[in-house]
Amino acid sequence: MIKRRSLLKSLGLTAALNPVLQVAKSRADSDMFNHILCTCSHSQIAVTLSTHAPLRGPTLHCGGAQAAGHQIDSEGKHWSFIVEGLAADNEYSLQVNDGGGEIGEAWPLRTFPAPNVLPEQFKLLSYTCAGGGDGFGFMGRQYFKPVEFKRRLLASALAEKPDAALAIGDHVYWDLRGQGIPQIGRKKPLLKWLLGHYLRWKFGEFDRSAEMIGTENEAVLKAIGQEQIAALYGTDFKSVPLFFIGDDHDYFENDDAEKDLVTFPADVFSKRAAKAMADLYYPTLLDRPVAGDGRLAGRLRYGRLFDGVLLDCAGGLTLGEDARLVPADVETWAIKTCTESSATHFAFIPSHPLGYTAGKWREWYPDVVAEAGADTVSNELLGETKGTLGMNANKYLWQQDWWAQHQRLLGVLAAKEGSRFMVSGDIHALAAERITRSGDLDLSERPVVSLLSGPVSSSDATWPSSARGIRAAVPTWLKAETLVPVTEVNGYTMIEVTQDSVSMHLRDCGGYDRSLNETGEVLRSTTINV
After folding, report:
1. How far apart are CA 236 and CA 145, in angstroms?
2. What Cα–Cα distance (Å) separates residue 56 from each residue in 29, 98, 208, 390, 495?
């Protein structure tokens, strides 16, 4: 086993040992900003921020350009800005002004290279499942890691100086199961009653018939967002463009399908809640399809060196004839983008992975945890699942056409000339594989790498082996070469892209066993080459 200090030295992190980037220090009460998150393209910068005190009509100054703030909330504490017409590959100093005076200190942010330029290198941070209450637990079990653990993990990643970052789904965990407060243990009446009363007391309860902003719902959203988003990021990422794509929990539901409960397709309330939380806390995707929901898909282009298509696999899910995890118009756009992209390296970045199954309902695959001889089963989250993962039974309400869409997406990616791979989240693990066959698609001559980026916040009860009784695995209809075994640990992946290569550095930050008192800093590292 590599010693921690030796590993940190090899990663260039020794300057941050006490602790990593000193992220444990308290954020100053005098800081005007509650949080700042930014993203960019080669010609635009988007900023979403919140403040401790209301602003009247702020503007964002960016070099010689500026943009008026768009007020998101009813109090004047949450604002978004988009600055256009910027020079490519240029570092700008960003400054918020309000009423003629400067608010806080300026900070730097660099735009991406122009689409026709071939940069020498690009470093991309990727992670998933960063949401969850601060160390939330019950009856001796912890569901999510404390925010201090998560901040140290992300600080370890920031110490590697990425050029951009991917936050792939599950930025918030607040599963309502169609009601006003979370229904953890909904089939266990005492647990449901106790947790329901506690969460209602601490955060409030949603009114599913009311608007999200300007009603009591706004206070509930902000209470959740403050704990799970603002307290985690603060202003730490303000100089790193961060790309958010949603997944099931961001719609305030787990992807459940049981005879008395089906949580998707997302209903009106779920879509409004997801949009309101996203608008309040993280920046919009600047490069995206023209039609449809502006947060269901986006594109991260770094000159001609890298091109990545981000896909939300929950918010546009459909059932029935021609069922899809990704809406038809978004799929058409993604395929067209893949086919026409001239980038040296191309990636699909779906919120739910191609290449892995945990027996969940909303998967591309029919695999389910069941005992031999079973007919049709559903795997309830945090239930008492028995059996093995595979195709011993039918998965309740699983859609055959989801697999058809899987084959279309994987097929077009596999056929693309040059370097191509997939990066995703959702399944709480670090892992990587080369897919050599998918149904009737033979990829043995040019396998496609699929990466599980690593979660940030998972704890005792949220690992698949605990929540579902099994670890994630390769689906029955696929064949794959394991590059990094499925490992249930928190962590992240740093993807280093050059003109000639792609290297993925999978960082293991532990957190599986609380008795080890791990801090969130890097413990082990594995590197693979695509």
Report:
1. 19
2. 21, 7, 30, 57, 41
Give phi and psi for 174, each to the nearest 5.
Answer: -160, 65
In the predicted structure, residue 522 carries a pLDDT above the cut 70: yes
Q: Which residues pair with 482 in a beta bridge?
A: 433
Q: Is residue 374 in some structural domain?
A: yes
Is the residue at 168 inside a domain?
yes
* Angle made by CA atoms 456, 310, 271, in degrees to the nearest 5: 80
Q: Is the pLDDT of residue 105 over 80?
A: yes
The DSSP H or E segment spanning 253 is none
Which of 150-159, 201-210, 315-324, 384-393 is predicted least confidently?
384-393
Tens of pLDDT along 361-383?
Answer: 999 999 998 888 788 887 666 55
Residues 303-313, mean pLDDT to the nearest whole number: 98
**Average pLDDT over every residue of 415-444:** 97
Q: Is the pTM of this model over 0.70?
A: yes
Query: Is 191 within the bounds of a domain?
Result: no
If one counts the domains in the chain, the total is 1
- Domain range holding 392? 112-172+225-529
Judge contact between 39 and 81, C-beta under 8 A. no
On whether residue 446 sits in a domain, the answer given is yes
Are the beta carbons of 45 and 86 closer than 8 angstroms?
A: yes
**pLDDT over threshold 70, residue 11:** no
In SS3 terms, 401-452 reads as HHHHHHHHHHHHHHHCCCEEEEEECCCCCEEEEEEEEECCEECCCCCEEEEE
Q: How far apart are CA 181 and CA 170, in angstroms?
A: 18
Gap between the Cα atoms of 95 and 43, Å rounded: 18
Ranked by mean pLDDT, which of 8-17, 183-192, 296-305 comes out on top? 296-305
3 state SS of 329: helix
Over the Cα atoms of the chain, what is R_g? 22
Segment 482-487 long-range contacts (CB within 8 Å, at least 24 positions apart): 482/432, 482/433, 483/432, 483/433, 483/434, 483/449, 483/528, 484/430, 484/431, 484/432, 484/433, 484/526, 484/528, 485/431, 486/356, 486/429, 486/430, 486/431, 486/452, 487/429, 487/430, 487/431
Q: pLDDT confidence of 26, banded at 50, 70, 90? A: very low
User: How far, in Å, are 60, 93, 113, 438 from residue 90 at the CA level?
Assistant: 17, 10, 8, 43
Q: Are 336 and 408 in contact (CB under 8 A)?
A: no
- The single-letter code of the amino acid at 463 is W
Residue 7 has pLDDT above 70, yes or no: no
Kindly provide the residue ranges of all beta strands, DSSP E only, lying in 334-399, ordered along the sequence.
345-350, 368-370, 376-377, 388-390, 394-395
**What CATH number is attached to the domain comprising 356?**
3.60.21.70
**Per-residue pLDDT reduced to its tens digit, 343-366:** 999 999 999 999 999 999 999 999
Q: Hey, what are 335's tokens? A: 């395929």
| Structural element, H or E, at residue 243 | strand 242-245
